[in-house]
Design goal:
binds S-adenosylmethionine; 8 strands; about 260 residues; about 40% helix; 10 helices; globular; alpha/beta; 8-stranded mixed beta sheet
Length: about 260
């Protein structure tokens, strides 16, 4: 059997998905999604922080690549000397708590000009990155002690996927998964340590229009507003003043390793 070229395979998965909907690679998508994302994820940072715990110390520095709404930057800034949060979406950045020891850089990782730090983390960012090798090489170059990359192994449990499944009997092109990252790292010569995390995914919206905009953006071509709204009304449950999509239990992996150059 031929050896799989994991970088080429990754690019195909990202491009197939992007042909349907640009979602994850589009800062505009994250600008619109920011409030819902913050609401859905901020209660859930502990599992990842537990993997980092043995490496945290008050004199260390860290870069959070694709920091989003600061779900990890905010608590880590309390434990470390300095955190540099790299985040291209203005909407997402606006949720990062201002602090004296946090620098927020408005850029993609590919374009960011930053000094190296002890630790570099990158959580749920690689799904829309077509060239993961260059991206990961930069994570390694900028880390003195350890790199941590987290991704889901299971598919994204999202209302848009459920709408597509009900309308077309399939959920459309998938995103890259953790196991593909692990194989890609091996092919790059990186034998990472791995921690698996399991947690419930609840996507929270402030109102039906918020859920419709999010589903429209991730559904992509062929979106049907009336059918989409009817299905959303069926699958979202009211919780106080929010609408909630129960995505079940997700499995994610964290690959972490000592950079080869250090
Ligand atoms: C799913 S969110 C994850 C946010 C945060 N790391 C977390 O786990 O809560 C993905 C974030 O990655 C950012 N992002 C996407 N592509 C990026 C890139 N090439 N460089 C840096 N950040 C990127 C998006 O703007 C978005 O805020």
């Amino acid at each position: 059997m031929d050896e799989i070229d994991w970088a080429a395979r990754w690019r195909r998965v990202v491009e197939d998905r992007a042909a349907l909907a640009s979602g994850h690679a589009d800062p505009g998508y994250w600008d619109r999604r920011a409030s819902s994302f913050a609401r859905s994820t901020h209660a859930r940072s502990d599992e990842f922080l537990r993997v980092l715990e043995p490496y945290l110390a008050s004199r260390k520095t860290l870069i959070d690549v694709g920091a989003g709404t600061g779900r990890h930057t905010n608590p880590l800034a309390e434990r470390l000397e300095w955190v540099t949060a790299i985040e291209p979406s203005e909407g997402m950045r606006s949720h990062i708590a201002p602090r004296d020891n946090v620098t927020v850089v408005a850029s993609t990782w590919e374009d960011a000009e930053v000094a190296p730090a002890d630790l570099v983390i990158c959580s749920h960012v690689l799904y829309g990155v077509a060239d993961p090798v260059t991206f990961v090489e930069k994570l390694e170059r900028m880390a003195r002690e350890r790199v941590f990359v987290m991704m889901r192994e299971t598919d994204l449990p999202h209302p848009a996927a459920e709408i597509r499944r009900r309308l077309h009997g399939e959920t459309g092109p998938r995103l890259p998964r953790f196991s593909e990252l692990f194989m890609l790292l091996l092919q790059m010569g990186i034998a990472a340590d791995v921690a698996f995390l399991k947690y419930p995914i609840m996507t929270r919206y402030s109102e039906i229009d918020d859920a419709l905009a999010d589903s429209r953006a991730l559904f992509g071509e062929g979106w049907d507003e009336a059918a989409g709204q009817a299905i959303l009304e069926e699958i979202l449950r009211r919780d106080g003043d929010e609408l909630v999509f129960d995505g079940g239990v997700a499995l994610s992996g964290v690959a972490h390793w000592q950079p080869r150059e250090s």
